[in-house]
Amino acid sequence: xxxxxxxxxxxxKVAGIIVTSRGIALAVIxxxxxxxxLTHAQFYPCDLTExxxxxxxxxxxxxLDSTPCHFVLNLDEYEFLQVEKPQVDKAELQSALRWHIKDxxxxxxxxxxxxxxxxxxxxxALQVVATRKSVIxxxxxxxxxxxxxxxxxxxxxxxxxNLIGKIKGLAPETxxxxxxxxxxxxxxSVLLNHDIYINRLTNIGADTLNQVSDNDLDSQSIVDxxxxxxxxxxxxxxxxxxxxxxxxxxxxxxxxxxANLDDMIQQRLGIDCxxxxxxxxxxxxxxxxxxxxxxPDACLMAIGGALRVES
Length: 311
Hints:
Oligomer: single chain
Largest sheet: 6 strands, mixed
Structural class: alpha/beta
Strand order of the largest sheet: 8-4-1-2-3-14
CATH architecture of the largest domain: 2-Layer Sandwich
CATH topology of the largest domain: Nucleotidyltransferase, domain 5
Radius of gyration: 19 Å
Strand content: 25-35%
CATH class of the largest domain: Alpha Beta
Number of domains: 3
Number of helices: 8
Distance between the termini: 11 Å
């Protein structure tokens, strides 16, 4: 999908990369086997000033100069907006969308880079992904400086979607909710047939949920509030899209697992909840050459990025 800087693959391996203030996550997947094989996934702690050096070392070690690399933006590095489709020719759509979103972003329209997703439902709004040019340029400079072969600059919800597509036994025609947890916030999404219909921000993240305790009834209100947000999102999706109801929630944590979060939400929502963490990698239709215990949760979005296959 988004913000493509396509490179032609010269072998079957694909890399996914995501950087945060805490370090760099790198995943490499070999798509040659019938089942995608994860050959490397690791989080490398480092501060912002060390990003160029560490990524250059990883590029040399894993031959990223000849491996298509999908760089995944953090959720705070882009915005996901719903916009009514402008009545213009396709050639003019990008330009028209820029003016449609100018009042929805908090920076100047001249600094925006955008792409859009169309949904296979007549009359539905476009899903517009917007980010600052400076964010894209910074990531491009980092990748080029490390001699990585840039295939695309993607977004976290797309990487999470790629992982959901690998959940064993999950039918594609199922409406799936996604709770993608980060330290201080999370994204609530709804997907159907690999299309993203909803992508909303909540300020309830892993740090807040980590305070929840079975012995502290007051802390249970945090889960109550999150469940209400999930329920409202799912009800809006059903009325807005007129698609099948959400029957399953997938929970991913990019920092630390939250004990019993799936059970607590399932009791309140009454739908099946699954947690996808590195330690539960066997739930995915992906082979790995690493022990699941050695796969840090901070690598999930990098793995999702490496699962992207260009058509």
